[in-house]
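Translate sequence into structure tokens.
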Amino acid sequence: MKGLKKRFGSQQVLDGVEIAFPRSMITAILGQSGTGKSVLMKNIIGIIEPDEGQILLEGQDIISLPAEKRRKVRRAMGYLFQGSALFDSFTVEENIAFPIREVRRIFNKKEIRRIVEEKLEWVQLSGIEKKYPDELSGGMRKRVALARTLASEPQILLFDEPTTGLDPVLEESINQLIVRVNRELGLTCIIITHDIVGSFQLADRIAFLAEGRIQAAGTPDEVAEVDHPVLQKFLENSFVCTPEALTNSEKI
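Result follows.
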């Protein structure tokens, strides 16, 4: 992202965002509520268009492409919504089958069923194909949503507050799943979150968003050492520990 700006009325939400996301790494974008993390994510996937700036994928500016080419490029991206966003009236199987048909254009029922079973096995939820979302726990819905996203075979996977609303045990299991996605499947993962401890444990790189810009970016160790008053206050207030303790926490 280069010089990305987005305004809503009189509010300048993004004010020249500059950030790179290394291939096959996990990058966590931290920030307080209302700082524009979700707006940043929605610009990446095309739900919102920026007022200014570039979004470059392998050197190609997505924003300048014609609409149809832009859609094709963005098919390389998968998006895991904060609330999972499963279709309530669809079974688990039907939810996961949706991108297989609509994105990959596979219509053979036997092949669709095979892919659904494969993705459910990968997220450790085999055998729940006929259940509906309201029959699942919060953690299970997150896993089904991940299975559905993986079914479209993305190269880049974006997570919007993946552990919000989960208890500490489920938070850790979802974080471990993100690491598996990155390490085993080789996907580039981008996470927006306010989960400081989780992000310092799982991310290869961290970026801190405040006042419409990336105020700090680097490895967890490097970001923890940045002398930015908002960042340091955010770290200290979010958890009763020092940045040094965060960087010494065990990696997932």
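Note: The two ends are 28 Å apart (CA to CA).
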